[in-house]
Amino acid sequence: MSSHKEYRLDLDRIEESLRAVQAGFERISEHLLMRREPLTDQIIANLLLGYAYVDQLLEDGVEVFSPSGLDHILELNHIVLCGDNDSVRLEYGSHLLETRHRFANGIGEIADWYEAKRHKSAVRRAAGVYVLGVSQPQLFLEGNHRTGALVASYILVQEGLPPFVLTPKNAVAYFNPSTMIKYRDKQKFFDRQYYLKKYRRVLQNFFEETLDKRFRRSLRLDKEKTERR
Q: How confident is the model at residue 75 (pLDDT cuts 50, 70, 90)?
């Protein structure tokens, strides 16, 4: 089985793709169920910091769904909202504290689900964790979709698959189900047993069909290139 020891994220190509989505966002928006915030330079900068953080977690062999690793998921949310700027974090201190309380109340259920599904495929686990985090009550006050995409990428690359990255081609197929997931409540029996399972399957199929090897780099190839120099 491929693993995080073999692959990392290609941050340059991820940035290229996010910039392409930014450039074409007006056209993409015409096909969305609900108006979404465009990808600003700040959102992209913070997302890239988030992908770099995921890359470092994989390099360090951190298991984020272990009791000692869960705070890394919270840190990913802080990064997508505030980047790594200490003064910005200080400015939003009360918001981040409230976010921490909300996370503490919600992450246990997601971590338990992940542990129970650890034997399932990476795409199923990535889709399931995303759906549980984005559905109501959401795991974070803000930035649930972006943080969910980063956590999904961690799960996927850990198993040797490419990370999930927004592209002009996959944006509509990602945004529209994500919008529907946001309005379902995992505490309601019918939502959980029908709609959330339905959207988990939709997202799982989406990952299987759209994950792109361009966004994944092989450590073995990196080593070979270095040795040839």
A: very high
